[in-house]
Amino acid sequence: MGVTIECIKTHRSCDMGYGGFLNFREKVAHLVNDEFGKHYEKLSTPQMLNIASPEHSQAVKEFDRETIRLINKYRISKKAVDFLLQSDCGGRISPSTCKIIYSKIKDYDDDICYGYAGRDDCAMFRDLKAIFKDCCDTNSYLIYIEVIGNTLDEKNKALKKGNDDE
User: Fold this and answer.
1) Which residues contact 8 (CB under 8 A, 6 or more apart)?
2) 42 burial class (0-12, 13-18, 19+ CB within 10 angstroms)?
3) Using one digit for the tens of pLDDT, what is the confidence trace for 50-99?
4) Which residue among 6, 52, 66, 77 is least enclosed by CB atoms within 10 Å?
5) How many CB atoms lie under 10 A from the CB of residue 107?
6) Residue 137 near residue 1, CB atoms below 8 Å
7) How far apart (Å, rounded) are the C-alpha atoms in residues 43 and 56?
């Protein structure tokens, strides 16, 4: 089980687990704004992850308040924040959002394996960045879908939805 991220026009894609996708989005959050990135990391705290805990509701309210404060203070793109806060089980972002995010990540690279380590096609930051660039160059939506066995039907639905909006 994992996530596939793909440019719907070029079909360039990368596969990764949820941990790799979380690490990628955390890096994007830091590249958008370092203070926002530190705030974004709070999503991985026990108070945020354990919805049954008594602290969860208050933690979510505090997180949301701080998110709004940081967006306003630093004029952070709401479109970039939308990408960062969408469900990791599936989502899509518009070509304009891809352009905003690409402008923040284009000059960065690292040697971290975001994909499945040991695979020949293990997703690296440069691979994910190339998908965003493809979306910018072709005015395409970027989709990410949960991968559970055969996902052809889900992928086709996501592709169709992205094409209908163009």
Assistant:
1) 140, 141, 142, 143, 158, 159, 162, 163
2) middle
3) 999 889 999 999 999 999 999 999 999 999 999 999 998 899 999 999 99
4) 52
5) 8
6) no
7) 11
In whole angstroms, what is the distance from residue 129 CA to residue 74 CA? 24
In this predicted structure, what is the pLDDT of residue 165? 54
Token reading at 8: 């719907």
The pTM of this model reads 0.88
From the list 106, 140, 138, the residue with the least C-alpha distance to 125 is 106
Token pair for residue 54?
Answer: 């008594």
Q: Provide the 10 A C-beta neighbour count for residue 75.
A: 9
The SS3 of residue 108 is coil
29 close to 37: Cβ distance less than 8 angstroms: yes
Question: d(Cα 111, Cα 92) in Å, to the nearest integer?
Answer: 26
Rounded CA separation 27/105 (Å): 9
CA distance 15 to 127: 10
